[in-house]
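User: quick one, sequence for these tokens?
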């Protein structure tokens, strides 16, 4: 019977080639868009859930009242002794690990040497996280100084198919050159991990970390701390212990004895919340936005709804013209069950043809979509089985809904009424309602598209106050190269295509260095101004086309200008200065004379107002 239904359905669809093609293509495009959006949403919601004990892993962070940076006083970094203190003093913690971003010059010889992004990690890293260690002992892989664990792709890059464990690499980090021993190979982190790395370097390789832990110094925070809770513990169980840490180790420090209201508050964050629900200072990498993900999900639902409504509308319009066919079939003895099965078979056949085409379209569009959303998404069934099951369920649902009208309404017509070609009452009203719904949703989508287009156009055309055309940025990662800046500048200037050369500590489109300035000429007691700052070299104003509104620019080679500073208009206003040149401000504990004022320019996001800024001339422009 099923075979007969499908055969008859196929013949009927072939007889209506134009309508069938319209149905299939329209539904396939909508399903393909919804599939890609669903893939992105699923990926965003799955971050860090691949760890075996993801629901028991928390990150410890802190709030420093009154120490705002980039609009918040909450920080992802904690002191070095935190991990050992958690395992020693908190029964609810099974293991704790710390990581720190690291960029190391790695290689086996000059031809393979290059910078790699990785993490310093403490010895319990593999006890907390479930990254797949392909070779090596997880208990000892990060225990000794100079131990390094490479990802599978990094190991292949340096050693080919040779076993990497036991091999040595030259590493340059923290201004030191050292030999590193490969103690393990780990599978490349999945794309839905907030921890990404090419290598893991034993934290004890850093003498600063070892010294800080041994001396139990809680005054500075440089590390991301994670804790694996025991099965019967919750994150709330850590609150008393974290409060005790603040009182025991932070409160006695001189600054907090004088300013108890600004005492650090430690708190926990679930691992699975870090990607979408955490926006602290000094995150390991850019996160996502839960609001944006749900907005995109709603967009996908609307697109899918439009495709379904369009298909259902076409199906009902075609169904209303098939009343005579129903009458003939009933006259020759066809029952309601047979007619229902026939209409459903046709609808499901069209739906699953469209579904197959949608998958093909999504696969073709996936590389472009990955570039658009900056993700490495895959349609492999093994990676997103639930999404594929949901896709099949949606296909069945669309087929049943689209076939429901002719199967449940037309099949009930009396033979005489059907033979006269009289469609059921209300069919026109149903189609009108569907069309109106389509127009409403389409209008909303078009309005949203126009708003987004205007926003993008504004970002592309708005003046930032910086001239970025024809400017090339060359990151100098190696400190030895930084020391040779004068030689590099002279060499670049000799090139006929180079007009000017300068250097800065931060990119002028993202200056994130900030400090609380309490000393300047004319400052009142207890006054404090948050100032963004960056070291720059002479020529910065000319290269980026900044406008000097008072005073002058740095003069190259002028010893008098070394240690001087340029401030922006906003900082001059914050300090209440009508005339700034000749006055001084204190940046990083060094009094600096103001030699000029630059017109305000956007060095942060357009979402943030222009903030106070100081650009100081310092030969040691990289810390």
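Assistant:
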């Amino acid at each position: 019977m099923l075979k007969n239904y499908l055969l008859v359905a196929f013949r009927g669809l072939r007889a209506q080639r134009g309508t069938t093609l319209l149905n299939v293509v329209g539904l396939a495009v909508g399903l393909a868009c919804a599939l890609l959006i669903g893939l992105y949403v699923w990926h965003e919601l799955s971050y860090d859930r691949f760890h075996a004990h993801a629901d028991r892993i928390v990150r410890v962070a802190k709030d420093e009242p009154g120490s705002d940076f980039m609009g918040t006083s909450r920080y992802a970094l904690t002191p070095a002794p935190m991990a050992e203190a958690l395992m020693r003093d908190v029964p609810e913690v099974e293991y704790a690990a710390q990581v720190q971003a690291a960029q190391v010059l790695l290689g086996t010889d000059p031809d393979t040497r290059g910078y790699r992004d990785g993490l310093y990690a403490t010895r319990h890293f593999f006890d907390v996280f479930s990254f797949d260690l392909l070779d090596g002992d997880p208990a000892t892989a990060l225990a000794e100084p100079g131990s390094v664990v490479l990802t599978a792709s990094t190991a292949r890059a340096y050693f080919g198919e040779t076993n990497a464990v036991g091999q040595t690499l030259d590493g340059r980090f923290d201004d030191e050159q050292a030999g590193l021993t490969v103690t393990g190979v780990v599978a490349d982190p999945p794309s839905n991990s907030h921890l990404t790395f090419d290598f893991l370097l034993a934290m004890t390789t850093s003498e600063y970390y070892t010294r800080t832990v041994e001396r139990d110094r809680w005054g500075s925070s440089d590390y991301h701390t994670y804790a694996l809770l025991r099965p019967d513990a919750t994150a709330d169980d850590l609150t008393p212990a974290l409060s005790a840490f603040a009182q025991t180790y932070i409160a006695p420090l001189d600054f907090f004895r004088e300013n108890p209201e600004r005492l650090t508050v430690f708190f926990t964050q679930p691992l699975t919340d870090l990607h979408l629900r955490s926006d602290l200072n000094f995150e390991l990498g850019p996160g996502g936005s839960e609001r944006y993900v749900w907005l995109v999900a709603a967009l996908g639902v609307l697109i899918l709804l439009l495709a379904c409504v369009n298909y259902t509308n076409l199906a009902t319009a075609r169904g209303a013209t098939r009343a005579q066919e129903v009458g003939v079939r009933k006259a020759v003895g066809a029952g309601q069950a047979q007619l229902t099965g026939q209409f459903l078979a046709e609808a499901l056949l069209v739906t699953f043809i469209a579904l197959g085409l949608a998958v093909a379209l999504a696969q073709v569009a996936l590389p472009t979509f990955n570039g658009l959303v900056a993700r490495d998404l895959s349609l492999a069934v093994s990676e997103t089985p639930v999404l594929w099951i949901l896709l099949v369920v949606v296909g069945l649902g669309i087929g049943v809904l689209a076939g429901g009208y002719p199967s449940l309404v037309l099949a009930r017509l009396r033979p005489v009424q059907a033979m006269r070609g009289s469609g059921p009452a209300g069919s026109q009203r149903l189609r009108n309602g569907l069309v109106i719904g389509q127009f409403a949703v389409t209008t909303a989508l078009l309005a949203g598209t126009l708003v987004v287009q205007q926003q993008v156009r504004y970002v592309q055309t708005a003046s930032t106050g910086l001239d970025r055309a024809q400017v090339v940025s060359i990151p100098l990662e190696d400190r030895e190269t930084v020391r040779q800046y004068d030689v590099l500048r002279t060499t670049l200037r000799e090139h006929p295509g180079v007009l000017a050369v300068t250097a800065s500590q931060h990119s002028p489109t993202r200056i994130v260095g900030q400090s609380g300035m309490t000393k300047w000429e004319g400052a009142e007691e207890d006054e404090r101004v948050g100032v963004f700052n960056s070291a720059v070299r002479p020529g910065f104003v000319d290269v980026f086309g900044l406008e000097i509104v008072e005073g002058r620019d740095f003069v190259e080679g002028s010893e008098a200008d070394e240690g001087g500073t340029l401030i922006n208009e906003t900082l001059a206003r914050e300090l209440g200065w009508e005339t700034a040149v000749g006055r001084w401000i204190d940046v990083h504990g060094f009094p600096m004379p103001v030699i000029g004022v630059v017109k305000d320019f956007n060095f942060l996001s357009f979402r943030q107002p222009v903030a106070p800024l100081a650009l100081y001339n310092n030969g040691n422009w990289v810390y």
